[in-house]
Amino acid sequence: MTASVQDSRLKRRFELWDNNGDGTIDRSDYESEARRILQGFGEQENSPKGRALLSAYSTMWETLADKAGSGPQGQVTLEQFIQITEREIVQAGDAGFDRNLRPSIEAIVDIADTDGDGEVSSAEFKRWMRAAGVDERQAEQSFQQLDTNHSGTLSVEELVDAVRDYHQGKHDISLLGN
Asked: How far is CA 83 from the centre of its chain?
């Protein structure tokens, strides 16, 4: 994947976090996304699943802020975000992804799996994507592309792999809003 495609994907991720459009992201931007997901599933912040998601997002933010040298109450610019994400997640491969993003994805999937069967159905996936700002048509298309075995569900590993593979440029199935 070319650097410009990777940068474009990272820029889109940054823009989704930059809730107020000021060109920086901070702890509140990460917390806002986690809360949108919790609200999308009617999950309380103080429930075990809610605490796990908020903790995963907080850890993700603190790692980024530390690498940027801004501290947990500081801000990160687009340039810093792209540089750090490329180094810590893209170039670091599976180990970097597992260290930085896997806990958040697993916490989201735990919330999205509303029937507790260990899989995310099409309806559960669409609900997650809607909370993340993805329209239903795009969510349906993404689900169909990710469900390569046509089981009608996605496992935690399939979803973790899908997010990792997208960010590492192995496929173009976006789990981000347009």
From this structure: 18
